[in-house]
Specification:
Blueprint: E1 2-8, H1 11-23, E2 28-32, E3 44-48, H2 52-61, E4 69-73
Antiparallel strand pairs: 1-3, 1-4, 2-3
Length: 76
């Protein structure tokens, strides 16, 4: 299964984005990034229930700093 999420460098930024999306009626869940790029350090992933690109646009328009959208595939 493939998972797509929005990456944040800190839990604080992820929580800020989660609250914003919740206010817009978009549910999400913040977790540690399951597939971190170790050059960026341990970061956080916001998993969106619904359209991740719509959520990303809302976050970008609100000037919440993020590390972009990323996908990973679970290994069997």
């Amino acid at each position: 299964m493939t998972h797509t999420y929005i990456k944040f460098e800190s839990q604080t930024l992820g929580e800020k984005a989660k609250r914003l999306l919740n206010d817009k009626g978009i549910k999400s869940m913040l977790k540690r990034n399951p597939n971190p790029n170790h050059k960026e350090g341990c970061n956080f992933a916001l998993f969106i229930q619904g359209n991740v690109w719509q959520a990303y646009d809302i976050i970008m328009n609100s000037n919440i700093r993020n590390l972009g959208v990323e996908s990973y595939r679970e290994r069997l």
